[in-house]
Design brief:
This protein is an alpha+beta fold. It is built from 8 helices and 12 strands. α1 crosses α2 and α7 crosses α8. The longest helix is centred in the C-terminal third of the chain and has 20 residues. The chain starts with 21 loop residues before the first strand and ends with a strand.
């Protein structure tokens, strides 16, 4: 097992990965083109368009931003690009795009890329990384909240507008903002491999209120509530629903939009995800 760079804060040395995994920062224009080639295979677009120009990836790296490639057996298998940002909470790294080649998904490459990114940010005095993702995709929500220890803190309606890639085409690009507080207890525990998936039965027994769930036909059912802990059940495979029942997928988009926009306006955040694809929405931790 090969470990990514470690520091006193840890870099998930426990995590199983390809035996010769090597995550490298980009230091040349040619390496930046490798990054874009990898990402183009994950985020493919009509006409073989790339998700961003290679020269832009190189400019990001050259100007001191985060651009990295994961290699195994000297073959690129994953990549990530992030740049410095600033919002009301202060400076942070914004992770713009990341991906792992399909053949390597599920092998911890993505997890180790994010942990490498975490250490890069901490070593530069940043305590937060943000990015956006489609909140309907349950497996990504579980990865972000449970495997990394991040939180979902804002909802953006049709954030990117129309996107022509194979994943987003034909759907509105609603996104949740992921806020990864890099040095808090949850993130440190996740970096050490201590993942805290929520238990739905226990939450229900404590009085959490279900505000979104599927009915017997798989259609979304909403319940309006102002309770401090709310449960939002997602379909386990929205990608499949989009392919087989696009109108149903659209109903899920609108239902989740209403539920999460309301919750964030009430000052809540997504603090957990159960193993069966249910968001736990509650007040932010201190």
């Amino acid at each position: 097992m090969t470990e990514v760079e470690t520091s006193r804060r840890g870099a998930a040395p426990h995590a199983m990965a390809p035996a010769d995994l090597d995550i490298r920062l980009v230091h040349s224009e040619a390496e930046a083109r490798t990054v874009v080639r990898v990402l183009a295979q994950v985020w493919s677009r009509d006409g073989e368009l790339e998700p961003l120009p290679p020269e832009l990836a190189w400019v990001f790296a050259h100007s001191g931003n985060y651009v990295a490639v994961a290699y195994t057996d000297d073959e690129p298998v994953g990549a990530a690009i992030g740049f410095y940002g600033k919002d009301d909470a202060g400076p942070h790294l914004h992770s713009h795009i990341a991906g792992v080649l399909p053949a390597w998904q599920g092998s911890n490459v993505g997890y180790l890329l994010k942990q490498h990114q975490r250490l890069w940010a901490l070593d530069r005095g940043l305590d937060r990384i943000t990015w956006t993702f489609d909140p309907l995709v349950a497996r990504n929500a579980y990865f972000n909240v449970v495997k990394l220890g991040a939180r979902l803190t804002s909802y953006y309606v049709d954030f990117y507008g129309p996107m022509p890639d194979d994943i987003n085409s034909g759907d509105e690009t609603d996104r949740c903002l992921v806020s990864w507080r890099l040095d808090d207890a949850v993130a440190r525990a996740a970096a050490d491999g201590r993942f805290a998936a929520a238990d739905l039965d226990e939450l229900v027994s404590r009085g959490a209120v279900q505000v979104l769930h599927p009915d017997a036909s798989g259609a979304p059912v909403q319940t309006h509530a102002s309770d401090p802990v709310r449960l939002v059940q997602l379909p386990p495979d929205i990608v499949g629903v989009r392919q087989t029942a696009p109108a149903l997928a659209r109903r899920w988009r609108l239902a989740l939009r209403e539920v999460l926009v309301t919750a964030f306006a009430d000052g809540l955040e997504v603090a957990g995800v159960t193993r069966d694809s249910c968001y736990v929405v509650s007040a932010p931790a201190d």
